[in-house]
């Protein structure tokens, strides 16, 4: 049971509040485990609402000065943070793989993606422009200026432990807000590493704070982060269930809220699609992060004329995937990140099998590799009564459903309360426009499965969330419009 503390530059067993490395006020710690082998990788403070109050007070104090910095000053500091994060990308990727289990190549990809937000928002800060309006009255001049909303709470998940923080904190800091981050219990060390380099970059004390806790304290910290009078807004990425709870809690104080919740992405392959391109896209989308992304394809809808061919090609490519410890070179699919995920995927597959689904390949845990590994699995014979038909699978289990017409495919695709991403493959340009318009989702991949970047507006509709992250719209979540009316001119 080897500790990997040499990777961690920040002082051990502490979190980062008000520019200092501090233990939990209760003195409690909790252990982070490597999902590939169950070995402990480090201990972090198990903080509670009391620590959260301290962090919020620090953020409130820091807001007094941070909000008055110029956009350029904030941009320069964010850029320094970006430069350090780029220098440290290998270390950061190793930490991500240790905590989350994702293959090292994907962790490097996440660092690049995460850093792109810091880079992007370091520039966007200077483009938070206001407006001067044509006044209807001669003696009046009307202006809109944009101001930071204040202290924001950022609650993040374990599937992108790095990029989900930079996507939020980059925008918040660029806007002039200060923040308290609560990372997921599976991946707090990644958050602490980000804070460590933020400090090195000269981000002033109190501007960025991290409150770590185990799952049992998440509800009380979540309550404080959504109801404290200090908090102006909350941004959350995670499950729909917790998102709804936070939305409710935020309503008591009418807080600004941004939610990036679960998806149930359709992946439609039309009769005229390039099947090689489509199956490559399907592999990338379904097995990235072991299927644990909210924009993963959840339902493969395949035109009946190409169904068998698609299944064969998809299964052949699936069999070539190397499952294993993500820190080993050449591995494509790591373990599921935690026991809850493993149990969920096992339950969804067992339910489908019981109700008559057919296994094309895979179909069981890869137990010889460790407790949390699962074989890339493809099933057909899906019926609407199966859990896999409606639930977000979040694992390496692909389900394929045949359809006859475009209308039928779109109807199935939209038959969910979720609406995050949707994908389809076609070579018919009219069909591309029609289907892109008709899919009830916030993001559409057309003959493309990898759609994210700092420049893209990420977000969902329906129960998948509120607001957009990344792009120039990402800043809007953290500013409000103040209308100024100069009179009696
Ligand atoms: P998942 O099911 O993928 O773990 P969650 O929504 O449960 O997704 O977790 C996302 C984040 O929400 C994590 O940081 C987790 O600790 C946090 N969280 C869980 N429960 C609560 C809660 N009641 N209030 C606030 N945050 C919570």
Automatic annotation (TrEMBL):
<dbReference type="InterPro" id="IPR016162">
    <property type="entry name" value="Ald_DH_N"/>
</dbReference>
<dbReference type="GO" id="GO:0004777">
    <property type="term" value="F:succinate-semialdehyde dehydrogenase (NAD+) activity"/>
</dbReference>
<dbReference type="GO" id="GO:0005739">
    <property type="term" value="C:mitochondrion"/>
</dbReference>
<comment type="pathway">
    <text>Amino-acid degradation; 4-aminobutanoate degradation.</text>
</comment>
<feature type="active site">
    <location>
        <position position="260"/>
    </location>
</feature>
<dbReference type="InterPro" id="IPR016161">
    <property type="entry name" value="Ald_DH/histidinol_DH"/>
</dbReference>
<feature type="domain" description="Aldehyde dehydrogenase">
    <location>
        <begin position="21"/>
        <end position="483"/>
    </location>
</feature>
<dbReference type="InterPro" id="IPR015590">
    <property type="entry name" value="Aldehyde_DH_dom"/>
</dbReference>
<dbReference type="InterPro" id="IPR016163">
    <property type="entry name" value="Ald_DH_C"/>
</dbReference>
<dbReference type="GO" id="GO:0009450">
    <property type="term" value="P:gamma-aminobutyric acid catabolic process"/>
</dbReference>
<comment type="similarity">
    <text>Belongs to the aldehyde dehydrogenase family.</text>
</comment>
<dbReference type="InterPro" id="IPR050740">
    <property type="entry name" value="Aldehyde_DH_Superfamily"/>
</dbReference>
<protein>
    <recommendedName>
        <fullName>Aldehyde dehydrogenase domain-containing protein</fullName>
    </recommendedName>
</protein>
<dbReference type="Pfam" id="PF00171">
    <property type="entry name" value="Aldedh"/>
</dbReference>
<dbReference type="InterPro" id="IPR029510">
    <property type="entry name" value="Ald_DH_CS_GLU"/>
</dbReference>
<keyword id="KW-0560">Oxidoreductase</keyword>
